[in-house]
Amino acid sequence: MKIYNFLSILVIALFFMGCKKSIPADLSDVSFIPHPLSVEATGTAFEIKPKLLIEYNSDQNSIDQADLLSKQIFEISGFEPVVQDVSNGNSISLEIDQALSANDSYEISIEENQIAIKANNEAGLFYAVHTLLQAIEYSADFDAWIIPSGLIKDAPKFEYRGAMLDVARHFFSVNDVKRFIDLIAAYKLNVLHLHLSDDQGWRIEIKSWPKLSEIGGSTAVDGDMGGYYSQEDYKEIVAYASSKFITIIPEIDMPGHTNAALASYPELNCNGKAPELYTGTKVGFSTLCTDKEITYQFVDDVIRELAEITPGPYIHIGGDESHVTAKDDYISFINRTNEIVKSHNKTMMGWDEIALADIDSNDVVQYWAKDENATLAVEKGAKVVLSPSKRVYLDMQYDSTTHLGLHWAAYIEVDSAYIWSPKSLVDGVNKDDILGIESPLWTETITNMEEIEYMVFPRILGHAEIAWSDEKYLDWDLYKHRLAKHAKQLKRKEINYYPSKLVPWK
Cβ distance 83 to 57 under 8 Å? Predict the structure, then answer.
């Protein structure tokens, strides 16, 4: 009888354990930005509880991303998962699986008691983790921390998904740059282009030409405080970016936009005289002396030192708005500079004016203004990065009431930043010609991190989606509602975003 009673109790207990109540939830209702390639909802949820396990396989890549996921789940939910290499029940597993053929691709399978993340590479794991973190925000409408169940499959549309930060017009600290990196990495951007020199300031230490930073880095627009990165500072930024799967692209703008360099070393000027340091915002008035051999020694030294501390493949040489450089001299300068870049085993990038020079399939042209330059670049075999000033320039005002920024290209509201297609932007430039998209923030009027965030967010979220997501998801009427629900994530990260009236914020 005792055995019978014991068995009865055991059967009843197992019955109730097996009848654990499912939590209904809809994965397709999560406000993912950028939108994954596919989302299949199964109607239940994985619940985040104390002693949640995060399992990794044996490689260091999985361990690093497991640690990241654990830290982020703790920050969001207050539960600190246990990271280990053996699964035991309620767990999240991370695995590199090269059977997923697309570079940076991943899959997330979410069941009630198990989440399995597989990715083609470590970057794919990183992107999957950030997608999963967005899904956790869905919990705001529940009494528990949950992740809706289903299957997510994802891969990027373009390999180059970038932002540019102008640190020349106004200087920003290493910590500010790191904050910027954190914010853009969460939305699967993988390039940060640093505009390191201009008329108003030189922001990188060049040991063979020390006055560039000492003199050229001493001021900024409106006479504001200058500054520059030591090479150790720059290496710190590069390493931090790399940990977030972001490639740093340094830009030294030449042969125009060079007043800070000319003020530091007058021998680079054709008249041999040092101009005054410049704190205004006019463009196109300066040029290196393209006829002097010392100019090319200068270019070689600068690119050599930058190449030595830049592991990424690109050196950006500017090349825009050199209005006082004769066309033939400009072309000759770009050609020779290109040879110098290649001699240091880097790929030359430049603004779309460099298409006038003898570029080829080994070069990258950044389109910002002239369609004819973009089509010329493609005709010469170069790849194009799209930065159309009327769509993605983050320093453009939202409307006439915006207290920061300029509007020489356009007023760019949140809808205007989103409603455009890379493949139809420029006649003759097709999807296969496009390396990717980059959103530049020029800083003539931007002086601090709070102002950076206001001008960048939420527009860059739309740019990130255009660069990552399939065309079928690029619908403004649907996107604006996802963006509205996404506001809680911006607030949790304490991002000072622009609350556009075109978005039905929650």
Answer: no
Q: Is-catalytic flag, 80?
A: no
Sheet containing 114-119: which strands, arranged edge to edge? 38-47, 146-154, 106-110, 114-119, 91-96, 53-56, 82-84
| Residue labelled with tokens 């560039």 | 212
pLDDT, tens digit, 9 for 90 and up, residues 268-325 = 999 999 999 999 999 999 999 999 999 999 999 999 999 999 999 999 999 999 999 9
User: 380 pLDDT exceeds 50?
Assistant: yes
Backbone angles phi, psi at 152, to 5 degrees: -110, 130
Alpha-carbon distance of 463 to 449, in angstroms, equals 20
How big is the CA angle at 360 (ends 356 and 366), to the nearest 5 degrees? 60
Residues 260/201, Cβ–Cβ less than 8 Å: yes
Beta strands 314-318 and 197-198 are unpaired
Residue 394: C-alpha distances to residues 66, 106, 190, 406 (Å)? 34, 30, 17, 10
Average pLDDT, the chain: 94
**Comparing 5-14, 43-52, 161-170, 210-219, which segment has the lowest mean pLDDT?**
5-14
Given a cut of 50, whether residue 60 has pLDDT beyond it is yes
Predicted local confidence at residue 10, as pLDDT: 36
Chain centroid to CA 447: 20
Strand partners, 201: 198
Q: Which two tokens stand for residue 124?
A: 């794919």
Structure confidence by residue, pLDDT tens digits, 77-101: 899 999 988 656 679 999 999 899 8
> Which of the 8 DSSP states describes residue 35?
P
Q: What would the mean pLDDT of 118-125 be, rounded to a whole number?
A: 96
Using the structure block, give the residue that is written with the tokens 């690109």: 314
Contacts of 468 (CB under 8 A, 6+ apart): 34, 35, 156, 157, 158, 161, 188
With contact defined as beta carbons under 8 Å apart, do 29 and 137 qualify? no
DSSP strands (E only) in 120-246:
146-154, 160-166, 191-195, 197-198, 201-202
Where are the extended beta strands (E) located within 375-497?
383-386, 434-441
Q: What is the pLDDT of residues 190-209, one digit of tens each?
A: 999 999 999 999 999 999 99
Residue type, 117: I
Catalytic residue among 47, 321, 413, 471: 321
Say if pTM beats, i.e. exceeds, 0.85: yes
Close Cβ partners of 260 (under 8 Å, ≥ 6 residues apart): 168, 197, 198, 199, 200, 201, 202, 212, 215, 216, 217, 277, 278
Gyration radius from the chain CA atoms: 26
